[in-house]
Design a protein that fits this description.
Length: 612
């Protein structure tokens, strides 16, 4: 259609009589979708950007200004082309993403390596990924050491070192080293598949990003109408009145505002954040309070070793290695925490020669010919162990500070040290809270844990407000109270968070390890489970809204100038439409600056004053 309009212009210049007819027909065809959309909106008593533009088209045809109608059709057709191009680009991006997923995987089976289709991989299977290969499914490393490029998911081009116990994500590239992993998410549950599905879902919501333009048009059209009526009353000049409406045609805003939002959503997607519609980015920019679930969001949701306090006669690594061996066959989460910590710090964990669980107190094992006991205070009573006064003082101090998360270790009946375990906070959580505070967003932690645990985590992360011992119903009630003070966001990952995610002004799900129902209920999904993405999206939203406000200012200033030129007789209807067409490019150029903020996956650019 763009080509036909250009040809019609040239035809009209060469053959004015037949060319004018061709130009009128072509302009009518180009504006037809806008006229239909405007009619549907008016039937619903809604004035939006389509009604604004349709009014200018009708004025053009009724006054015989077919060139004016053609100029408008040219811009509206450009808007539709941009919309098609955006959808096409999203489709291409999804295809490129899926191409990164390997077709085959190397499976370890009965001590041998077997190449199988990736669809044959099941949860719990052990896989091997060689240097230069891509991770076929999501999983956890069980052995090896490798540097993995996660740019396809996180946008970070710097390879990340992976060790046993670390998570690995499908479609990421092993640049060096070799890793052995256990599959945890396969098929449609893998990160790359979920990312593609969410991108399709976000693409289907693209029409929502025009709500800002519609609100703008609904407010400005009555003012333009009033100016046109006054012009007619004062001058009685139909051509001058028509020129007023042609200058004010908002066809450029129909392109510029969606363009700004499209660019912003693309930036977010390349950083591993899927936003299911432009309006959620707008809410993030206006958000006053962010409610954050503790377990699995601020923390990893699994127990980890917080502190090790060995006695002077034994080193920290040796103590950790001995305790990990003793706990190797334990099914208790604490035993698994010892194993993960030792695998990361000391290497492979040997099997104990013997292993015995003492219910309610701990375990006793034989490791390297030494008897190892680890557990709570009851392990002392059960084995008749003797503590020195210094050891008793340490135990009392640790118990006072950490309660039942402190465990005691003995080797051959001798006190060897203390170990405290906790649900370990994510390393980026404290910095994310600070950045949110700097952006004017208040952070409140909601958790079902007891007050003591909640207070410890909140204090460690610099969160001034927290609520403890909360059931899902209490979270909803708490959200309702906070929403009275302004837009509220909610971040969570579990099934119990889904109601609050759906109720909040904007729901944000941790999509990497989060429950499917939470991802479905959320408006924004962070595929990388990286909390630092939240302040980045807040900054991106503010940047996008600043660009849109700039578009509006440019439009208003250019229109005021155009009105002055019309009222002074400088511009007639034809030149008024040309003036509108020429100034249309100013807000488009302004919106396109957002694309400059991010060029290519993994390359950082500045958004506002911050690095994104």
């Amino acid at each position: 259609m763009l080509g036909l309009i250009v040809v019609a212009f040239l035809w009209q210049l060469a053959e004015p009589v037949t060319g004018t007819f061709v130009l009128a027909v072509t302009a009518g065809l180009g504006c037809l979708p806008t006229l239909v959309a405007a009619a549907r909106a008016l039937r619903k008593r809604r004035i939006g950007i389509d009604a604004f533009n349709a009014f200018a088209v009708v004025i053009s045809f009724t006054t015989g200004e077919f060139r004016s109608a053609a100029f408008i059709a040219l811009m509206l057709t450009s808007a539709r082309w941009l919309d098609w191009r955006t959808e096409s680009t999203t489709h291409d991006a999804i295809e490129e993403l899926m191409k990164l997923k390997p077709a085959e995987a190397i499976l370890e089976r009965d001590g041998a390596l077997v190449e199988v289709p990736v669809e044959a991989v099941r949860e719990g299977d052990v896989l091997v990924v060689k240097p230069g290969g891509r991770v076929p499914v999501d999983g956890v490393m069980v052995s090896g050491r490798a540097h993995v490029n996660e740019a396809s998911v996180t946008g970070e081009s710097v390879p990340v070192e992976k060790r046993p116990g670390d998570g690995v994500v499908s479609a990421t590239l092993v640049e060096s080293g070799m890793l052995k992993m256990r599959a945890t998410r396969v098929g449609k549950d893998s990160t790359v598949e979920r990312m593609a599905a969410l991108m399709r879902q976000a693409s289907s919501h693209k029409s929502r990003i025009e709500t800002t333009a519609d609100r703008f048009a609904g407010g400005f059209l009555p003012l333009v109408g009033l100016l046109g009526i006054l012009t007619w009353i004062v001058t009685g000049d139909a051509h001058k009145t028509a020129a007023i409406f042609l200058v004010a045609c908002a066809d450029d805003m129909a392109v510029a505002i969606p363009l700004a939002m499209t660019a912003s959503l693309g930036i977010a997607a390349r950083r591993g954040v899927i936003i299911k519609g432009g309006e959620w980015l707008e809410v993030m920019a206006r958000m006053r309070t962010l409610v954050v679930d503790k377990t699995g969001t601020l923390t990893y949701g699994t127990l980890g070793i917080r502190d090790i306090h060995p006695e002077p006669w034994i080193g920290e690594k040796e103590l950790l290695s001995v305790l990990a061996s003793a706990e190797k066959f334990s099914e208790h989460p604490i035993g698994k925490a010892f194993g993960r910590a030792a695998a990361a710090k000391t290497g492979p964990v040997p099997d104990p020669e013997s292993f015995e669980v003492r219910a309610g107190s701990g375990i006793i094992a034989l490791v390297g010919g030494r008897q190892v006991a680890v557990g709570n205070e009851h392990i002392v009573d059960g084995l008749g162990l003797i503590l020195t006064p210094e050891a008793k003082a340490k135990l009392a101090a640790e118990k006072e500070e950490h309660g039942q998360t402190t465990f005691w270790a003995f080797i051959d009946g001798r006190f060897a040290g203390l170990v405290t375990v906790a649900d370990v906070p994510r390393p980026e959580a404290a910095a994310a809270v600070r950045r949110l505070s700097d952006a004017g967003v208040r952070t409140v932690m909601f958790t079902g844990d007891n007050e003591r645990t909640a207070a410890d985590v909140a204090s460690a992360l610099g969160i001034a407000e927290h609520r403890s011992s909360m059931v899902p119903e209490a979270k909803l009630d708490g959200l309702e109270r906070l929403m009275a003070d302004g837009p509220v966001g909610m971040v969570g990952d579990g099934i119990n968070d889904a109601p609050a995610l759906a109720r909040a002004d904007v729901g944000i799900a941790m999509g990497g390890g989060g429950a499917a129902v939470a991802v479905e209920a959320a408006d924004i999904v962070i595929l990388t489970d990286d909390l630092s993405r939240i302040p980045e999206i807040v900054e991106l939203g503010k940047r996008a809204l600043a660009v849109i406000r700039g578009d509006v200012i440019i439009w208003v200033v250019s229109n005021l100038l155009g009105f002055a030129l019309v009222l002074t007789g400088v511009l007639g209807p034809a030149f008024a439409a040309f003036y509108n067409f020429a100034t249309d490019f100013l807000p488009l150029i302004n919106s396109s600056l957002l694309f400059r903020d991010y060029r290519g996956t993994g390359e950082k650019r500045h958004v506002g004053a911050k690095t994104f």
